[in-house]
Amino acid sequence: MNKRMVVLGSQWGDEGKGKLVDLIANKVKYVVRFQGGHNAGHTLVIRGDKTVLHLIPSGILHDQVMAILAPGMVISPSALVKELDQLKQKGFEVENKLLISDQATLLLPYHVALDKAREKEKASQKIGTTQRGIGPAYEDKIARRGFKFGAVLYNQDIETDLKEVLDYHNFVLQNYYQAPAVSFDEIKQELDLIRNRLHSKITDTTSLLHQAIEENAAILFEGAQGTLLDIDHGTYPFVTSSHTIAGGVAVSCGISPNAIGEIIAVTKAYSTRVGSGPFPTELIDETGQFIQKQGNEFGATTGRPRRCGWFDMVMAKYSAKVNGFTGIALTKLDVLDGLPEIKICVAYQYKGEKRLTPPNHAVPLEQCEPIYETLPGWQQSTKGIVEWEQLPENAQKYIKRLETLVGVKIVLVSTGPDREDTLWLDKTICQM
Ligand code: IMP
């Protein structure tokens, strides 16, 4: 049991992080989103009602939770306000339960325009981004021409500074991409949303977290996207622009790596990927279509169909090493119900050689052929099962085999989208 826990995706995102965070946040004081922006789409199903969150941390629906958007995030004010309004319409009043770091970076309409223009220009070479402006917003931050939320409160000249940066981006948009310019009015609207609606939520979240750690408060750090989409440790360039791995928590939040205890890997019982990039176990056949249909594998943010494939143990072991996982939450087991056999990729064949670790570059990774171990499937439904003994024997064998091969304990198995569809194997690890 540990008072600080990270929950993140071990694959290419969409592993079901939202459900897990929501499930274990009932005794947590703070839930912190530490990277990315509204490219994420975390789906929660509570008593049959579906809610998709993009920026707001999934644990916010618990009464005692304060939700924090950390310094490492890129945040669109209009996307955030839209989400707050949608929650309000559903009867969730969370306005006073949200804090925004004054060091978080603004994501503005010119970032979205640049993301779209670039993807259009690259055509078949495109990354397949969510077109939310994430990459361009992080670029501006690193180039030191970004704007922090604190600047809106403290910088008297922010409008002049913003006009300068807007000119710069409009030059690129119009002259390089032949795309329409972004008007200052659009930027002004975002500023107004901060000044009129969000200003009271902007605060020094770093000091707040330091204090919370000193008081030994329970804090849950919620990852977005997945390990294999990390800017440095994913399948570059087909990645997102932030650090999605456990190490990213310390960097983004301004806390010590020593402050982090448990690191839980949310891991799908098979693999999916949205957008372009290498995917060694991809199934471009009827089984792939079966998994896509059964798993409703369509992006929560963009609605795009997700590419589907078998479980990739080479990637899972890599991910476990990069993050130092202390437990696995295995999700969407029920999607595999009815398959005659189930495969696990245990190694790659690359240029005639067997590899147990993935190559670090997209080009050789594209050339890797999976080497599979085949297990018998199960024909019974596992949907909603919450007791180990009730699982079909072949499902038990599959779970145990995954656990043995990764070498990390599976602490829970998710057997459906609802909070209740959860089979706990070790509850102690998630009791904060
Ligand atoms: P970006 O984050 O919008 O720049 O997109 C970069 C890559 O990350 C693309 O392949 C996206 O499909 C992928 N991506 C971004 N956010 C998510 C997510 O929440 N789930 C899964 N994939 C994502």
UniProtKB/TrEMBL annotation:
Pathways per UniProt: Purine metabolism; AMP biosynthesis via de novo pathway; AMP from IMP: step 1/2
Keywords: Cytoplasm, GTP-binding, Ligase, Magnesium, Metal-binding, Nucleotide-binding, Purine biosynthesis
Biological processes annotated in GO: 'de novo' AMP biosynthetic process; IMP metabolic process
Cofactor binding note from Swiss-Prot or TrEMBL: Binds 1 Mg(2+) ion per subunit.
Binding site for IMP: D14, E15, G16, K17, N39, A40, G41, H42, T130, R144, Q225, T240, R304
Binding annotation for Mg(2+): D14, G41
Primary localization class, coarse: cytoplasm
Keyword Ligase: yes
Top-level division of the source organism's lineage: Bacteria
Classification via Gene3D superfamilies: Adenylosuccinate Synthetase, subunit A, domain 1, Adenylosuccinate Synthetase, subunit A, domain 2, Adenylosuccinate Synthetase, subunit A, domain 3
InterPro entries reported in the protein's UniProt record: Adenylosuccin_syn_GTP-bd, Adenylosuccin_syn_Lys_AS, Adenylosuccinate_synth_dom1, Adenylosuccinate_synth_dom2, Adenylosuccinate_synth_dom3, Adenylosuccinate_synthetase, P-loop_NTPase
Annotated residues for binding of GTP: 13-19, 41-43, 306, 332-334, 414-416
Protein name: Adenylosuccinate synthetase
